[in-house]
Design a protein that fits this description.
654 residues; mainly alpha; 35 helices; rod-shaped
């Protein structure tokens, strides 16, 4: 009969340590778990390492939890300070990998106060890793600078060289410095090859750095290693990025196979939904590359994918729902179904907040789609449909358009459809930058403000047009219109040069320009110039009947009467009454002619004219003046008769 001889703790520890160094963690666990009388601090640590090696880095389970418990227990009874600090550092690393970041940080605060310089450096490096895990990459970058300042010219602790480079690479990856991150990762694994065994997510991060750099072939190699050797929990993410890398390498069929695997692994998970979205995108890209447009069969195949995704919880509750809606909108746009596309974009835009990246993405895509559609409709002259788009999205996507060409097309279309008020702000925005139709935009703005009676603003548009497009298509008419505006705004001195130029030209506008020029001179009290222009109107068109000629005859005749040129005034009044018997100036012309004839010719003719005025006019002022003139004519005629009789009596007396 054999009796088991008890093994001393020292020998038990030595045997377990030998097994651990040989990689036989099962023997370590078996021998130390069966120990009687408790474990020494060193044995607790060794068993914790064995549990950790068995469970981590591939999963966190009861063994990993027990490992953390043993490390904490050993830490409380570790006899020497140096061993205790080293154990605290190792424990903080385990806590960090377990996701217990705050607990790890508490240990590091103690270690940063260590009397051993190497431990201080290691604690500061570990702190950088903590910040990386929190996503505080800017703070991690600053912490690295602080660590280097503390280290000075001292050597990096030998057991930290590779890990430090890996941690620093994580910082640069978080800052999107992909080339720097990838270089550091490669240097790290060259310095310490054990990193790839102890950190199974390292391949994934290297793949992510290469992908961000656009080095898709390198990313593919790292991601394949991550899938085959890395953490199973992150396998789906690695597969997604691998599929994207293959797609960028134009290996689209392989990419679809990878995405299909993700769908199989987790069909209703976020990764599964993303994989379906990627598959739909590849189908679209392949069809466009092959046919130049989206065929019906591919369209329905893609839409079937999206319809299936609509049944998932992510579609109704998660952020991926908005992405799916955006993809649906994009598919409709490629098919040329603009109304469905824009409505789909609008739903995403309306249901998300401005701070949401999906909101901004949907907005950008919708604006591009809208601009494309507006260009097509405008080129085809379908202004009414452009207006319909504007009216539908004027409070959403239209406000985000910055393309001057599109703004002009919208504004011009609205103007053509009689919506000048709505066209105006769009046309103004279009002129803020160079646009091929800027001259047209300025001309339209002039017309809109002119038609609305905003003459002051219209004058500014004409000034801008003539300054920029002095030889433009509308330059001549714009100069004429500028004179018109100056006239309407009573800027008479400035208006003269424009109307003098127009008055000297042949054409329909000449007579109108001459008459307004005469009015300008009259308002400036330049009677000689006014007379010159009125005479030019009268002499240039003898016998011609027109409202302008009517006014010119009456005004010039009255001017001549006032200056004492009665014979010519009488001639013009007679011509006026003969040509325009129904003019609203007729009664006054008769009155003025009566005054002249009373002076230079016949009282009887003057009295006849006055009686005609009294019988037809309703103007109380004129009637009063005519009555007075009639009395004056009668009195003057009586006086003349009296003088005539007296003369005859004197000649007949002895």
């Amino acid at each position: 009969m054999f009796v088991d001889t008890p093994i001393s703790p020292e020998k038990r520890y030595a045997m377990a340590a030998t097994a651990f160094d040989a990689g036989d963690v099962s023997s370590v666990i078996r021998s130390l778990e069966e120990a009687h009388g408790g474990l020494s601090p060193q044995e607790m640590v060794l068993l914790a390492r064995a549990f950790w090696a068995r469970s981590y880095p591939y999963r966190m389970d009861t063994l990993a939890t027990e490992a953390l418990h043993l490390m904490n227990q050993a830490l409380s009874v570790m006899p020497t300070e140096a061993d205790k600090e080293q154990l605290m550092f190792e424990y903080s690393t385990m806590l960090l990998h377990a996701g217990l970041i705050s607990e790890a940080q508490n240990l590091l605060r103690v270690l940063k106060e260590s009397l051993h310089p190497d431990m201080v450096i290691k604690a500061h490096i570990q702190e950088i890793d903590v910040l990386n895990h929190r996503g505080s990459f800017q703070d991690a970058f600053v912490a690295n600078r602080r660590m280097l300042a503390i280290k000075g010219d001292d050597e990096m602790p030998e057991d930290m060289s590779g890990r430090y480079l890996s941690i620093l690479a994580d910082t640069y990856l978080g800052l999107n410095a992909h080339q720097k991150a990838l270089d550091l990762y490669h240097e790290a694994v060259t310095t310490d090859s054990s990193l790839l065994r102890n950190d199974p997510d390292l391949f994934s991060r290297m793949g992510k750095a290469a992908f961000g750099l656009g080095a898709y072939a390198t990313a593919r190699e790292h991601l394949l290693s991550a899938i085959n050797q890395g953490n199973p929990d992150s396998r789906q993410d690695a597969l997604l990025m691998l599929g994207d890398s293959l797609s960028h390498l134009d290996e689209k069929d392989k990419a679809m196979t990878v995405f299909s695997e993700v769908e199989t692994l987790a069909p209703h998970s976020e990764s599964g939904i993303i994989a379906k979205l990627r598959t739909a995108k590849i189908l679209l890209e392949k069809d466009l590359a092959m046919h130049g447009s989206l065929t019906d069969s591919t369209f329905y195949e893609i839409m079937d994918i999206y319809e299936a995704l609509k049944t998932t919880r992510e579609y109704s509750e998660g952020q991926l729902g908005s992405i799916i809606r955006v993809r649906i909108a994009q598919t409709y746009a490629h098919r040329g179904d603009w109304e469905e596309s824009l409505q789909a974009y609008y739903r995403v835009w309306f249901e998300t907040t401005p701070e949401d990246p999906i909101h901004r993405y949907a907005q950008t895509e919708a604006v591009e789609t809208l601009q494309t559609r507006v260009a097509e409709l405008y080129t085809a002259g379908k202004y009414d449909q452009v207006c319909e788009l504007h009216n539908a999205y004027q409070d959403s996507f239209i406000r985000e358009i910055t393309c001057s060409e599109t703004l002009f097309r919208l504004g011009h279309s609205l103007y053509e459809m009689g919506q000048g008020y709505q066209a105006r702000p769009l046309l103004i925005l279009s002129t803020e930058h160079d646009v091929s139709a800027k001259d047209q935009a300025l001309a339209l703005l002039y017309q809109i403000d002119y038609d609305s009676g905003n003459f002051s603003q219209a004058l500014q548009w004409s000034a801008r047009y003539l300054e920029r497009f002095g030889q433009g298509t509308d330059a001549r008419s714009m100069r004429e219109l500028r004179g018109e505006l100056l006239y309407l705004l009573r800027h008479y001195e400035e208006a003269i040069e424009y109307f003098e130029e127009m008055a000297g030209q042949e054409g329909e506008k000449r007579l109108s320009a001459q008459f307004k020029l005469a009015d300008i001179y009259r308002n400036l009290d330049r009677r000689t110039d006014e007379a010159r222009v009125l005479d030019s109107i009268i002499s240039a068109s003898p016998g011609q009947r027109s409202p302008i000629m009517e006014q010119a005859l009456f005004l010039r005749a009255t001017q001549l009467k006032e200056s004492g040129e009665l014979q010519r005034a009488m001639t013009l009044y007679r011509e006026f009454l003969e040509s325009y018997p129904d003019s609203h100036h007729t009664d006054w012309a008769m009155y003025h002619l009566a005054q002249i004839t009373m002076e230079v010719s016949s009282h009887q003719e003057a009295l006849t004219l006055v009686h005609d005025i009294l019988s037809r006019s309703t103007d109380t002022i004129l009637l009063s003046a005519a009555t007075s003139l009639a009395n004056e004519i009668d009195l003057d005629r009586d006086i003349q008769d009296f003088h005539l009789r007296r003369t005859r009596f004197s000649e007949g007396a002895p």
